[in-house]
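Course assignment 3, question 2. Fill in each field.
Student: A.L.
Task: Predict the tertiary structure for the chain below.
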Amino acid sequence: MANAAIYLDRDGTLIHDPGYLNHPDQVQVIEGVAEALQEFHRLGYKTVVASNQSGVARGLVTVEMLERIHDRLRELLAAKGASLDAIYYCPYHPDGVVPEYRQDSDWQKPKPGMLLAAAQEMDLDLTRSWMIGDNDRDVEAGRRAGCKTILIGAPHREAAPSEQSKPDYVAVNMREAVNIIKRYQRSSQERRMAPAPEPGHEQSGPPRSVENMLTPREPLPGGPEGGAATGSAPPPSRRPEVRDTIPATAPGPAPARTETDQLLASILEQLRRMHKREAFGEFSLIRLLAGVVQVFVPFCLLLALWFLMGSRRQDSNVLLALGFAAVLQLMALAFYLMRGKC
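Answer field:
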C-alpha cells in the first residue's frame, strides 16, 4: 500500500522568511514546527519539503550553499527530535540571470511537478496526502496534484484567490494544521466504522460537517493529464535529499510565549513576506517616474533653505522653491497610488 505524505513549503512555513535566504546562519525554525513534524510521523505520514528556490536562478545563492542551508535545517530539527524524509526544490526561473537555470520548469509551483516526482520516487498516494504552505501557489500545486490543502496564516492578497488556489482549510500555524489533519483522520475512521443504512431508509441524524463531506479530489487541469508545460528539465539533484546523519534527541521544555509575543511574531512575518514581494517585483514605468520625481523634492527643499540663509534673503525665491517641492511631492504620491491600482 502506498504511503501518505505531508508536503511542506519551506520559507514561511517551516522557517522564518527573511527574503532570499542565502546562508545557513539565517535559518530559524518557526516555533511549533518540530513538534508538528513529530506528530505527522506518529500519524503515519512521510514529511516532504517542496520549495521554490529561484534565488539560485537569480544568482542570490548557489546550489552548494542551498545544500548547506538544508543541512542546517535538518540539524536544528534533529536537536528538537524531529526530521524530514525528503527535500525537493526547484532552482529554475524564466527571468533568472544564471543561464544554466534560466528556464521554465514543471517543478516550479504552482505547477505540481515536485509533488508528482516525490510521489513516484517515494511511492506516495497523493489522494491521501496533504500540501501545507503559506502562499496561494502552494495551495494550487497541492490541488493540481490531487492533495488536500492547508493554507498557513493569512497572507496579504492583492486579489481574490482563483478557484485552483482556494485551500480546503486555513490554519493560524502548524499546530492548528496538525489538529485539522487529526480531526480529518478521526472523521474518516468514523465513516468507515459506521454501519451502512438499510435499503429504502434515509440516514437520520445531524448533517455532516465539512470535514466529513470532503473527499479526495482528482487532479485539476494542469497536472499530469492536464497538459503541464513541456521542455523543462528537472532540478540537477533529481533525487530528494534523504540523508539524516544527525541523531534526533528528545526536545527540551520550550519557554511559554504570551499572546502579545505571538502577535508581534505574526506581524514581523507578514512584513518579511511583503518585503520579499517588493524586492523582486516587476519593472513599472510609473514606479520609475515616482522615484525620479521624489529625488527632486529634497533638492527643492535644499534650494529653499539656501535662498533663506543667503546674505540677500529672497523670500519670493524661497516660496517658489517650496511650491515646487510641494507640487513634486504630490506628483510622487499620485504616481505611487496609480502604481498600486495598476
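Instructor remarks: The two ends are 51 Å apart (CA to CA). Confidence is low (pLDDT under 50) at residues 201-233, 235-255.
Grade: pending
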